Automatic annotation (TrEMBL):
GO terms of biological process kind: regulation of DNA-templated transcription; response to amino acid
Alphabetized Gene3D superfamilies for the sequence: 3.30.70.920, Winged helix-like DNA-binding domain superfamily/Winged helix DNA-binding domain
Gene Ontology CC entries for this record: cytosol
The entry's keywords: DNA-binding, Transcription, Transcription regulation
UniProt xrefs under InterPro entries: ArsR-like_HTH (IPR011991), AsnC-type_HTH_dom (IPR000485), Dimeric_a/b-barrel (IPR011008), Tscrpt_reg_AsnC-like (IPR019888), Tscrpt_reg_AsnC/Lrp_C (IPR019887), Tscrpt_reg_HTH_AsnC-type_CS (IPR019885), WH-like_DNA-bd_sf (IPR036388), WH_DNA-bd_sf (IPR036390)
Domain of life: Bacteria
Domain called HTH asnC-type: residue spans: 4-65
Matching SMART domains: HTH_ASNC
MF-aspect GO terms: sequence-specific DNA binding
SUPFAM superfamilies: Dimeric alpha+beta barrel, Winged helix' DNA-binding domain
Entry keyword DNA-binding: yes
The protein's name: Transcriptional regulator, AsnC family
Record carries keyword Transmembrane: no
Length: 153
């Protein structure tokens, strides 16, 4: 865990909202010299606090309006079963997130598709063929109430 001061937190908060800020813009917004700001950002990158920079795409514009949460229970908990499942699910582009869970399901997937027919095809071609799956339950999101990639700093 890296020690973050208030200036680091301000920099991180701004970069999470506006990742394309130039160093000059960022330094002005946090009231720091450009060279000091650059050193801080470089330190945060090197420490792994900042993992990378991405463009956030609009799912609806790209025709991926439907979000489905899929709970998966595996047939066993042996390392080879978990490893095979995780390797296979990592190859499915529609799976945005895959979490190993404690609770009623072993894994929770967040999937984006264009509509229910698209999900049916994904289910048939990929999800139903995942190794070690004993049971699967899908829940369709009706409306996105809140979504963010920003971590509180």
């Amino acid at each position: 865990m890296i020690g973050l001061d208030q200036m680091d937190r301000r920099i991180l908060a701004l970069l999470q909202r506006e990742g394309r800020l130039t160093n000059a813009e960022l330094s002005e917004r946090v009231a720091l010299s450009p060279s000091a700001c650059h050193r801080r950002v470089a330190r945060l990158e090197q420490a792994g606090v900042i993992r990378g920079y991405v463009a956030l795409l609009d799912r609806a514009v790209l025709g991926r309006r439907t979000t489905v949460f899929v709970e998966i229970t595996l047939s066993g908990q042996a390392d080879e079963v978990l490893d095979a499942f995780e390797a296979a699910v990592a190859q499915i582009p529609e799976v945005l997130e895959c979490h190993l869970m404690a609770g009623t399901a072993d894994y929770l997937l967040k999937v984006v598709v264009s509509d229910t027919e698209d999900f049916a095809q994904l289910h048939r071609r990929h999800l139903a063929r995942l190794p070690g799956v004993a049971q699967m339950q899908s829940s369709f999101a009706l409306r996105r109430v809140r979504e963010t990639t920003a971590i509180p700093v």
